[in-house]
From TrEMBL:
SMART domains: OmpH (SM00935). It comes from Flavobacterium noncentrifugens. Residues 40-78 form a coiled coil. Residues 179-228, 240-344 are annotated as: Disordered. InterPro entries: Chaperone_Skp, Skp_dom_sf. SUPFAM superfamilies: OmpH-like. Transmembrane segments: none annotated. This is Chaperone for outer membrane proteins, Skp family. Residues 257-293 have a biased composition (Low complexity). One of its GO terms (biological process) is protein stabilization. Keywords: Coiled coil, Signal. One of its GO terms (molecular function) is unfolded protein binding. Residues 185-197, 207-228, 294-344 have a biased composition (Basic and acidic residues).
Length: 344
């Protein structure tokens, strides 16, 4: 009933405001407090610390439950051996431990427990920042009403274009960043904020900004591809020059691998929104060209090396033949001298 009354009151106020401000329409916006809290760094860090405490408390509760269970199991096993007085004493101990367990659970996780209290302490400063940011945005941009989507007020429908949660997050983040900026940086930040605010106010500007970002991403991708092709070509030339200098051949796979690595490294350094298939195609074409050129140069180097080896082999055979002829002539001469020598 209270929600309906509040909603009726707001609608009535809107109607009267619309009549009084016929020159311009009523400007309404809303925020999503849960979304804002999830995207504020200070709250996220504090929430993680609180979750660690809650996890520790849960472990303590489990330990106490296990102790109570052990007492019950022991009593069930030893009941036939105990007297009535000992049984009553054991049962009283179990009741005491169960009561202590419930008290501990209420202390940590109850409606007014430590977890609820620390959550309130944690969220209150952020909520104050959100409230101040909403006030500033409402005054600067002439909002008539700003609602909280997560409050008791039921919103059956809320168009996204009226959501100013991102503006609130930026306002909170800006205030924390400004303390560390110089005057020049503050001036640049003001210009950037003004541009962001203009984009928030106009869907047409949002679309235009998106197109600008897409064109910028495409240019960066084109520059990355050109640089990758140049790196691949340079690697190919260096490999061929080194092979020519050493009189050796460079494996095709090695050169192609270097070209591919260079292409992938250069492309990965650029964050673009261009489809990955285009980058893969450019890399494949560059690698194929490099491989074909290296194949030709490798084949030429192999043929040249073969010719040199054949020439060396022919020269060696000719030299061996000359030495053999000389040795045969010398031996023939010595044999003739022996034949013509007078007999004693």
């Amino acid at each position: 009933m209270r929600k309906h009354f509040l909603l009726l009151l707001i609608v009535t106020a809107v109607c009267f405001t619309a009549k009084g401000q016929s020159a311009r329409g009523v400007k309404i916006g809303y925020i999503d407090m849960e979304y804002i809290l999830q995207n504020v760094p200070d709250y996220t860090e504090a929430k993680n610390q609180l979750e660690q405490k809650a996890q520790k408390w849960k472990q303590e509760v489990e330990l106490k439950k296990n102790e109570v269970t052990k007492l019950k199991d022991a009593l069930k096993t030893e009941r036939v051996l105990l007297t009535k007085e000992l049984i009553a004493e054991r049962e009283e101990e179990i009741v005491f431990q169960e009561t202590a367990l419930l008290d501990y659970q209420q202390k940590r996780f109850g409606p007014t427990g430590d977890l609820s209290t620390q959550k309130t302490v944690l969220t209150q400063p952020i909520q104050d920042q959100v409230f101040n940011a909403v006030q500033d945005i409402a005054e600067a941009k002439k909002y008539d009403f700003i609602f909280d989507k997560t409050s008791d007020l039921t919103m059956l429908f809320s168009a996204k274009r009226y959501d100013i949660s991102d503006q609130v997050i930026r306002a909170i983040t800006r205030s924390s960043k400004r303390q560390q900026l110089s005057k020049k940086q503050l001036k640049e930040e003001d210009a950037k904020e003004a541009k962001e605010d203009m984009v928030d106010e106009s869907p047409a500007l949002q679309e235009r900004q998106k197109k600008i970002d897409d064109r910028k991403a495409a240019r960066e991708k084109l520059v990355a591809d050109r640089k990758a092709a140049q790196e691949a070509k340079r690697a190919e030339m260096l490999a061929a020059r080194e092979a020519k200098k050493n009189g050796t051949t460079v494996p095709v796979k090695e050169v192609a691998s270097k070209a591919t690595d260079s292409t992938s490294t250069t492309t990965s350094n650029k964050k673009t929104t261009v489809p990955a298939t285009e980058t893969a195609a450019a890399t494949s074409d560059s690698t194929a060209t490099t491989t074909t050129t290296v194949d030709k140069r490798t084949k030429t180097a192999e043929e040249r090396a073969k010719i040199i080896a054949d020439r060396k082999k022919a020269a060696e055979e000719k030299r061996q033949k000359i030495l053999a002829d000389r040795e045969a002539a010398k031996k023939e001469k010595e044999d003739k001298k022996k034949e013509t020598k007078p007999q004693d």
